[in-house]
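Weekly modeling sync, notes
Attendees: AB, CL, MP (scribe)

Item 1: holo prediction request
CL wants a bound-state model with zinc ion before deciding which constructs to order. AB pointed out that an apo prediction alone won't tell us much about the pocket. Agreed to run with the ligand included and paste results into these notes for async review.

Input as submitted:
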Amino acid sequence: MLTLGIDTSTDNLGLALIENDIIKAEYNLSLKRKHSEKLLPLMVDIFANIGIRPQAIDAAVVAIGPGSFTGLRIGITTAKILARIFDIPVKGISTLEIMAAGVESEYILPLLDARRERVYYSFYKLNYKENDYLPKTLLTAAGARISELSNILRNYKDKEITVIGEKRHEVIDHLKTNKFLVNQSAAEKNIPRAAVLARLGRDYIDQGQKDDIYELKPTYLKQPQAEIDWQKKYGDN
Amino acid sequence: MKFEDKIKNETEDIYILALESSCDETAASVNKNGLEVLSNVVSSQVDLHKKFGGVVPEIASRKHLELLLPVIDQALEEAGIRFEDLDAVASTYGPGLVGGLLVTLTAAKTISFSLNIPLIGVNHIAGHIYANFIENPDIEKPLICLTISGGHTDLLYFENLRGYKILGRTLDDAAGEAFDKISRFLELGYPGGPAVEKAARSGDKTAIDFPRADLGDSYNFSFSGLKTSVMNYVNNEEQRGNEIDKNDLSASFQEAVVDSLASNIIKAVKEYDVKSVVLSGGVAANQRLREVISERIEKYNLDLYYPKLELCTDNAAMIGVAAYYQYLEHDFAPLSISADPALKL
Ligand SMILES: [Zn+2]
């Protein structure tokens, strides 16, 4: 099965093509807001280099955030259209889960910068010792102040937690101060890697867990500001 | 095979899928040889934005993503066309709201990539202009075209359909923007153009004599002075304790806008030896504007064209027609093209 992974959720533009367990191509480019210009030319490049045609892909997998809404819509639109034209399954994967699935630790706290003193986080358990490489979600994605994390994770104080991603140094300091057992991971484990995304999507699709191409959308952890302001002014409807 | 090897010439049938998401309509269409519109699907979000008094970009972008596939599916189905039948795919790439534009532009790029067909990037304003030729394929050239919307007020000269010259544009507010601002100021509702026009219908257009901008010999426009005059008038009247007749005010304001638009058209008609005058853009739906221009061009023996009401609002068919002429000129976009929110004609 030839699976294409697309990630435009963060500054990292991720693009990977995997065939079964072989990585045919993987791009992880640190680009700021250039995803619109770069994504399709890079796809052309990948397919040309590998020497296959776009219609050969069997599945499209895409990161669904948290992340930049505009960035996310670029990747998701691309995945939807590919799935529609080639009639292939599509699967959206949390950007935080991609990060978690890239390390071999039992308890993983992946982080994305939510600006100021805040992060987006999710908390996973990975039973890698039993050769299970699909993270189990213990805490679903949300935004929080860094200072709140010790309370959010209070039930896991006796576990060894691997903290990865953006703002990890601040979060590690905070957790250590609050007597948590924390680990780090090597530099390359701190971004959502495109090959991991493609592999996760393929595994889920193999298990029969694909998404409806019409329903697929970004993880919107925040309402549009205009909506928040309106509700403040006029109440909840 | 590269798509360049598949490019057809004018004598063959050319099918184009066109997409549009620059503001608050998500739209898709299929046309054959440009002017033959096989389908034209528009899904409007206007109700979603009403309560905010204007289009909220993030809300619009979310909705565009949701509506993208359904409108494409419907456009193909109504046209009886499959993806494989398409010769090219087009999308608006500006001007407009960048988050929205990126939805259909990205979709069009992916379709171009997947089907190995050319991508055509269309200027939304050019789309509004080409909308006229759908209904009036035999329109006589050369022609003068006034394109007026919330973002634009441009006067153009067309020798033929493949190119145009810009004679003048607005120096400040666009005509539609002026309507919106006045509508908000008078609390008449949203969208502003139809709201002001509705109020004006029961008002006296000679009630207040608002000034027209004097821009000398140029074909340019200016509406910010008029807007200030309206606001000053209201403030003065309120200070005097007088009741404001919103209908009279709307009618007088509208008359001033219409008058300056019509005057520039007449000036251009006199200088260029044209056969037709064309109105395009959202404000072209204004009935009073159509009336005044028809009256004033009558003695020059010209035909006046304006788009059907449904084509005045944003739609994809107009993008498809502009795209067809670009196709004939081999004016294709690279996959690296990005949205340009401030794109000019
Ligand atoms: Zn428009």
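Recorded for review: The domain at 104-184 of chain A is CATH 3.30.420.40 (Nucleotidyltransferase; domain 5).
Action items: CL to compare against the apo run; MP to circulate these notes.
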